[in-house]
Amino acid sequence: MMDTVLDAPTRTFIEVTEVWVPKDGRLVLANGNYGALDDFAAVSGQESFGPGEGLPGKAWAEARPVVLKGFEGSYFKRTDAAKAAGLTSAVAIPVFAGDILKAVLVVLCGDDKNRTGAIEVWAENDGLLMLSDGYYGAARHFEWVSQHTHFPRGQGLPGGVWASNTPILMRDLGSGYRFIRAESAGTAGLTTGLGMPIPVPGSKTFVLTLLSARGTPIARRFEIWDARKAKVGHAREAVLIDGICAREGPLWSGETEKERRVDAWQGPVGKALGSGLPVVESGTPALAAGYESMVALPIWHGPELAHIVAWYC
Amino acid sequence: MKKLVVIGAGMATGRALEHLFETEPGAWDVTLFNAEPRGNYNRIMLSPVLSGEKTYEEIVTHDADWYEAHGVTCRFGEKVASVDRDRKVVIAENGDEVAYDKLLFGTGSNPFIIPLPGHDLDGVIAYRDLEDTYRMMETAGTPGAKAVVIGGGLLGLEAAAGLRMRGMEVCVVHLMGHLMDRQLDEAAGYLLRKALTDRGIEIRCSTNSKQILGENGKVRALELDDGTEIPCDLLVMAVGIRPNVKLAQECGLAVGRAIHVDDQMVTSDPDVLAVGECVEHNGAIFGLVAPLYDQAKVVAKTLTGEHDSFVQREVSTKLKVTGCDLFSAGDFADGEGREDIVFRDPARGVYKRIVIEDNKVVGAVMYGDTSDGNWFFGLIKDGTDIADMRENLIFGPAFQGGTPLDPLAAVAALPRDAEICGCNGVCKGQIEDAIAAGATDLGGIRATTKASASCGTCTGLVEQVLAVTLGDDFVMPASQSICACTDMTHEDVRRMIKSQKLTSMAAVFQECGWKTSCGCHVCRPALNFYLLADWPLEYQDDPQSRFINERKHANIQKDGTFSVVPRMWGGITTPQELRAIADAAEKYSVPTVKVTGGQRIDLLGVKGEDLPSIWYDLNQAGMVSGYAYSKGLRTVKTCVGTDHCRFGTQDSTGLGIKLEKTLHGSWTPHKLKLAVSGCPRNCAEATCKDIGVVCVDSGYQISIGGAAGMDVRETTLLAQVATEEEAIDLIKAVTQCYREHAKYLDRIYKWMDKVGLDWIQDQVVNDLESRQAHVYRFELSQSIYRKDPWAEHAKKPEKYQPLADLTLEAAE
Amino acid sequence: MTDWIDIAALEDVPQRGARVVKTRFGCLAVFRTAEDEVYAIENSCPHKKGPLAEGIVHGKFVTCPLHNWVISLETGLVQGADEGEVITCPARVEDGRILLDSTFLTERAVA
Hints:
The structure holds 3 protein chains of 3 kinds. By secondary structure, chain A is α+β, with helices and mostly antiparallel strands.
């Protein structure tokens, strides 16, 4: 049923994904997928960030997701290496368990003329979610529309995530009457959206959305796992509640079907569940549906690991 | 090959065909009729399609390839005109005849459309199939479009949540008192309502629709019974379904509420089977998917000649709205010998209730934490004896040692900026800071923050903040809870009602962790008062939580009869009124007529069923209820003042009448008696009333806190004011202050002893702005409550009559 | 065999409320709880004959309006420190109608 074009080999929207974890008061690289960008990988492996330093340190110190477009002259520390690798933008997502920083996930994107997609950070302001910042590649018009759209609680993908405090997957963003920003999303070729709450200490609300386009997908498979004891019944177990895959079709299980479950440490999702940290895997032969790389991002509700979102390419 | 004709391509027939092809592949020649122009899709997943969380393609269960692979002749978009059972043929709309060996009805159900005026307008739809779903999406595509959903059940709420996600303003109108009333009890319904309101969905319960208004043939608004109009561009009716039995009826099958089937899913014709929402089995009809799939399995078995029986099992319900976790299974109402176990965790918004009968779990409702839902569902289905685990049952299978409900959880959950001490404007955070800085007891907090140093009603709360912050280092002084239903004191509960904006009894029970499902005769009247005093516009007075006197607006006497006291404003009456009273006394054979201490006439010994008629008669003569029964304004006693008395300094009678007219109908923590004396000789005995006014040459002396009951107390001067207008304002303000702060059943003098006269003066005498604010709030409340209950009750006299008279019946 | 008499619709009695049914042997109070359970008991408190139908209903109990005695609707027994009992009459709800046990009424005539 899914479009086979979606699976055509293309360069993906996100080129580099890395996980930074705190160690002795500084953030050090725990894991990363650099594709073929070996030099940038080597530079990154030697780097470390204190609170407020560089992009990961900023996400830590300011306790919010940070979008950085254009490294030249910014606080970004690896500007030269990034430039050499053709990377132009980055988004840093802090993972907090209550007040404690568990990790910072950083994604870097490249040359933006041919690639479309969106990584957006929404922040609450006066009872409405407004675009804090976002990286859109070539989707200029969609970027403009997003900057001028505000979401009340419960409305649209960001508002739905906010009201329910759970990750939400939305399909067919561009087709007709769907997504609130459908018209522009359709023109930009955006197909699938994954929204998730990014909890931070204090009372601020942030929502991160990944909007994937057919031609240059952020991912070809998305999964949402519920790990709340209130839903799953057992600690350290997670249930797949929703998902879409270019190769396998819908991933959710129907009312009377058996659910898909993982235990802690079982596969990459289980690893994120067990450690509570983001997991980046690449080149591992056993990834779901034969994909080459994947990212699993845990989302905490206070001290409880509530959900894991995963995307595969 | 055996010929099978299936009417209706739904979830039940789809599943039946799957089973059939698995057991006997290639043995059947199947023709499938479907009125919808498509095959089988997962109808219960329409809600996620509406919200955008799924696509139609993803919910298709059988596509064209599947039908082709199994050799099914699909006649989609074609209706069946009739069935000739004698010749065993199905006749299509175009006249085609299809012969069958076996016929399977899967005609499903039709949505029920309430025949309100305007139900046929464009834009009024049901929520049943993909066409409805697309129609809803289309309307949602128009910026600023509004929707009204009639029906707060499973389907209605899913529609509302989906439309809201699509950007529409949505209002749900529900006839019953709480949402999903078939699956949830009131407490769970409250939590669900809270979650949906939080999404920006407006919810109106206990609301009746009157008509649908249109413009140019298109829906424009829904008009409610009370005349309110809710504008909308789309009106979705999700009030229920009716099994679709027309065709079955026409061809002469046995039909009750739906098509009768036996345990083998065979209808009254041995060659005709039926499955799904169109069947009636042992008196029951089916709307949820699990029993439908069980039926489908039996249909396949019966067709292939194997024996199998459909058995009705318990079903569980869940709502497909992302982030709303609820679970409901079994039966939690109706029946003797049942008891329930309730668990609430206000901080996490968790509510669980298990219903037990004969040591078995028969029902379970959960909201917020549904992890043990399937375990309880298993106990219900298996009829497990739970005698041994009864004590800890509610904690679920993982219970180890148990965590008793923490009475401090509610305080712990308050945010740092929650105001703890209203008098001195101290927030929870400041108290926490003071504790961090070294304060370890109430005295220390009072000295550093002034919290609880004024009126003291927040003392309990400050102690709880100390306990939460210091843990075991703080020893909590024992405090008196309202009743056995809660560990909280009156002050605690009242503070929660105000700070958390709790506007219903269910909200208080949940957020304050009540241990019983619906309170008791001690807490309910108190809560009813607090709620109506603090949220006069939002809260709906609950007559069933009032003592009999207030519910029946008359004083019950020791023999079960009532006394009736008409109001005489300021103690002034007329010959006409007296004549009407005399007539009524004779007409209803009132045994005793007495003049009261409050300058009224009391008719004692009226029978309960005569109340509406005697009220009606007195109403006709212009008299209203004297509220002689109420925890509210009773009487304003007056002397004759300047009109007739040679000593009078002001018009005391006039002021008394004005006070009574402005204060009447207001509910107070205990009874409220006033008097106005025209001069210091004090003939109206104003100095032993709750509020007394003594007129002097230079103005009005207003004193409070008198009593002449078991305690006899003289009033204390609150203030002297110059004008009559100021006197009325001050009395309104002090009454409102009393309503807002006193414990239920404390007279003014008890309240004054607790908070001190100085504090009351700070609120309503010295600070004019504060006085006006109190007056404003009083008037706001009076806009609802300043009314005559007699007139309303006299309209419904049948409520006062016996439900039935069996004196003849039993004699047979 | 139990012979049930149809008394009224369930809606005729308010939730957490009661209505009176007159019988030859005195009045019965028919209660409806918050959970829509229905009970019928003698409408007279064993203490001072208070009209129980006018009391506050909570859970499966009613509190007498005169002196706050609490009586179980299921068993008719007085709760707590007080002692006493009222007569109970089997009652049930079917299809939204309240039914009372008629044999109960006739047997009482015999007794």
